[in-house]
Specification:
GO terms for molecular function: lipid binding. The protein has 4 helices and 10 strands. 25% of the residues are buried.
Length: 218
């Protein structure tokens, strides 16, 4: 009986381990392409058309300059893909804000809007900066002219390297509503890439280079 039990447990353990390994493998990031020093990876989400995005790149800048741009909410429409309007709803703390974006969608889709909270923190020892955006869709009454995005998360991890800052960006979003796969993939494929390119242009501006209003250690 002991032999049978041990054999059964061994088989179950093998099946469980294999299943977990297969699941983790299926959720690994897959390299897609590299453009202008920006490496793009995708990871499939569930059984639908959605994909998470990871981007790795290097900024010719310092940490405080990038943080200044990331927390300049009124200027989001100058670099974040398809954002046509952005407003700070409330300042929660020195490095934490709640904001509202309106997103221009290609016709005939209804435009989207999103309410999110951004928080930036820094490790005092390693100088690593983490910037996280978490959806807070109930933070503002719904507008009948927009589809409110209710599933959104983004994270920047910034580290000092020789000659600049290495950035890793992870992006997850479900635009909601009934959208064709091609349109969803347009925002997944082109959105983050164009936003990163826009951010790189923004941090070249003097108004970000000459300020460190958030106490970031470079």
């Amino acid at each position: 009986m002991d032999r049978i039990m041990k054999s059964t447990l061994g088989i179950l353990s093998f099946i469980l381990t294999t299943t977990i390994f297969s699941y983790s493998q299926s959720n690994d990031w897959k390299f897609v392409k590299k453009i202008d020093g920006i490496s793009i990876y995708h990871r499939k989400v569930g059984n639908g058309n959605l994909k998470d995005v990871k981007i790795e790149t290097t900024f010719d800048s310092n940490l405080s300059t990038i943080v200044e741009a990331l927390l300049d909410v009124p200027s989001f429409n100058k670099w974040i893909y398809k954002v046509e309007y952005s407003k700070t709803l409330r300042i929660i703390g020195p490095n934490q804000v709640e904001y509202h974006n309106r997103i221009n969608m290609p016709w005939p889709a209804v435009d989207r809007d999103i309410v999110a909270i951004n928080k930036i923190s820094q490790n005092a020892v390693t100088k690593e900066v983490i910037s996280e955006d978490v959806c807070n869709w109930k933070g503002l009454p719904l507008d009948k002219n927009f589809v409110r995005i209710k599933d959104f998360y983004a994270k920047w991890t910034l580290n000092v390297v020789n000659g600049g800052v290495k950035g890793t960006y992870i992006f997850h979003s479900d635009p909601g509503g009934d959208l064709p796969a091609a349109m969803v993939n347009l925002f997944i494929d082109e959105g983050p890439l164009n936003s990163i390119k826009g951010l790189k242009k923004m941090i070249a501006l003097d108004k970000y280079k000459t300020r460190n209003s958030h106490g970031i250690v470079n």
